[in-house]
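Hi L.,

As promised, Lipoprotein:
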Amino acid sequence: MLSALTALTTGCATYQSVSPAEAAPPADPIAAMVRIDPDLGASFCVIDSPAGRAPFAATLLQSLQRRGFEARLLPPGSSVAACTLTATYAATSQSYWRTFLATADITVYRRGERVGKAVYDARRSQGGVNLSHLIDPAQKIDELVDQLFPGRLPHPEARDRNPPLSEPNSGASPSPATPA
């Protein structure tokens, strides 16, 4: 029985690849405290997918805001040099028992130059049981942002004050939440 269960679950593979947009913080706690952030106070623009209304865009904006970025959504076709930091965002969702993040592609630019990329695809399974649809979309997007910006963990007070939103209707127009 155990070998049959193992055979079913070993074939599943969700694809995820992240090239960080910034370096991890120094291991030395003193160096980490005095590290100068060149993007402090800079606006972070997220360009919606070419098709518009990418699912969970509001969740991405909130994840960036909890890490201290002033994030806002720009329409499709906007310039990647529109803000100091810009990300193009494309995603798809699917539903089985619940709505889940099927694919996500986040490419980060600093002053128009590509500096990082995160790609996630829950549909790339090689047989077996793929349980990717059970992962909360906000949790997966938060994980991708964590890996893109390893030195910017969410501020505890922002995490408590501004929990991730659930976006059951992926066709709704995304709008950034304002902190209370």
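Confidence is low (pLDDT under 50) at residues 1-12, 159-180.

Thanks again for sending the construct details.

K.
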